[in-house]
Amino acid sequence: MTQSVFRVFTLAALLLVPAAQAVTVIPKTAFNSVADFEKYFDYLYPWGSDHNGSGRMVKGNVNVASGTLSLVATPTSNPVPPTSAANPHPAIHYASGAVHAKDHITVTAGNSYSIYGEFSALTPKGTWPAFWLTAVNGWPPEVDIGEWKGTANNWYNTFNTSSQVKSDLVAWPTDLSFHSLRADLTAQGSSVKIDFFMDNQLKATQYGANFAGAPMWLIINLQMEGSSGSPGPTGTTTYKIRNVQVTRTGS
Ligand SMILES: *[C@@H]1O[C@H](CO)[C@@H](O)[C@H](O)[C@H]1NC(C)=O
Ligand SMILES: *[C@@H]1O[C@H](CO)[C@@H](O)[C@H](O)[C@H]1NC(C)=O
């Protein structure tokens, strides 16, 4: 065959090489309806209703409609039992909302993940919304993509151990407008490299030791008081989330 025909064939062959295909693990439409939501998410934390603040999660404080997930915290009195089942067993002062993705996120040498969402997050004292990854087995890994602790900052955190944590704070507007957060995770040997973005600008890079191959939960919750200070709000507070998308390249 002539050289030009050969070139055409070579080009065609190159175009047919299967590029690493991105798989949509959670689509942006997951909050369009309760039925869509329940395909990809379960209610509460993976371990139940209680964690490290004064909010007790209940299904009734999770609302899904028109592409937006709303987690609502309402003051509660005489909760039973009165304290959290989880360490450090804080007193319960609120009913609130938490959800977690059904699929685990496991970063390996053969894949990479991109985790995205848009957030109208509260920053008053006593409000502790989060969008985070935590270990399925033991702890860590933990990666906090969104964590607001009662001040006008988002905290990006990666925990190697309970005492070895890297935190990068980025200023967060307090007007409840939506801003996007994204974390891109890739393995580097036994570690995982995490690039954190806000409104599509790279803000921080952190590394998690021994995170490769460790399955993680993706959790969205409105916890209250605890690390965000107390007392928290006396009225109803709402944390809104939209366009959450998880994609995986590779297997
Ligand atoms: C408490 O939960 C938040 C997520 O809401 C997490 O980022 C943090 O590491 C937890 N703190 C402790 C001490 O368990
Ligand atoms: C956690 O471990 C990684 C290595 O995987 C290292 O690069 C990083 O600096 C460690 N983080 C802290 C806070 O020591």
Automatic annotation (TrEMBL):
A single GO BP: carbohydrate metabolic process
Record-annotated GH16 domain positions: 19-249
Source species, domain of life: Eukaryota
One Gene Ontology MF term: hydrolase activity, hydrolyzing O-glycosyl compounds
Signal peptide bounds: 1-22
Record carries keyword Signal: yes
Keywords, in A-Z order: Signal
Protein name: Galactan endo-beta-1,3-galactanase
